[in-house]
Specification:
The structure is a homodimer. By secondary structure, chain A is an alpha+beta fold. Helix content of chain A is 31%, strand content 49%. The longest helix of chain A is centred in the N-terminal third of the chain and has 17 residues. The model of chain A has no long low-confidence stretch (mean pLDDT 95).
């Protein structure tokens, strides 16, 4: 059941990214989430994660993102996902691999730790 | 208790890396572990992870590694750690941030998912 719940949140994530709806994107993270963009420090909390996505979207010209879950395991109210994301950017396409630690907060699965890096050198 | 157990495994990891003991390094991962080196595909299983560390050690001239745990949360036999690693390389020092999903297998905590990226651009 949780895997389908997480898939639903991932579809919301894609939709929010496509529409550059940064508030909605940030709301899919836990309040004390951490994101780990390559070549920068750890980003903590929804406000900072919202700003990070704003910068990423602007700098890279993010137009679309597709998330593909390769593996998901659950332990109580925590789950961890392995996947790949295909980003459509103004300059072309980038593929990244990621690990997301999910946490169920107030009955909803939210991204709690979000780290990625490039799939190709 | 688990945080100290994981710290002990991290000290073993550092020691094995320093001695380029790839078998011992690989043994600290679960049999079905996945590692996510930047700029490459997902690496699955101990044998492939062993080879990956051999390549990394050789290509980068890895001399020393220091792991620093910034956060650890546990959910049953799973835990997830956030940290930073300082690598002493032949050409200088590199700092990476990482997320490790730990899993307790046969009574021992082992790295199950291991992903990192550069802290500085």
């Amino acid at each position: 059941m949780s895997r389908s719940e997480i898939a639903a949140v991932n579809r919301q994530f894609e939709d929010a990214a496509r529409k550059a709806d940064l508030d909605r994107l940030a709301s899919l993270y836990t309040p004390d989430a951490m994101a780990f963009p390559p070549d920068g420090p750890i980003v903590k909390g929804r406000d900072n994660i919202k700003q990070m996505w704003g910068s990423v979207a602007q700098q890279m010209g993010l137009k679309d993102i597709r998330l593909s879950t390769l593996d998901f395991e659950q332990a109580g109210d925590t789950g961890y996902e392995v996947g790949e994301a295909t980003l459509t950017l103004s300059g072309g396409t980038a593929v990244v691999k990621f690990v997301v630690v999910w946490k169920k907060v107030d009955g909803q699965w939210r991204l709690h730790r979000d780290i990625w890096n490039a799939k190709n050198g």
